[in-house]
Amino acid sequence: MNTLPPSMNKDDIYAWIVDMLHEMFELDKDKITPQSNLYTDLDIDSIDAVDIVVKLNQSTGKRIQPDVFRTVRTVQDVVDVLATLLNVGAGADATA
Question: Cα Rg for the chain, rounded, in angstroms?
Answer without folding.
Answer: 12
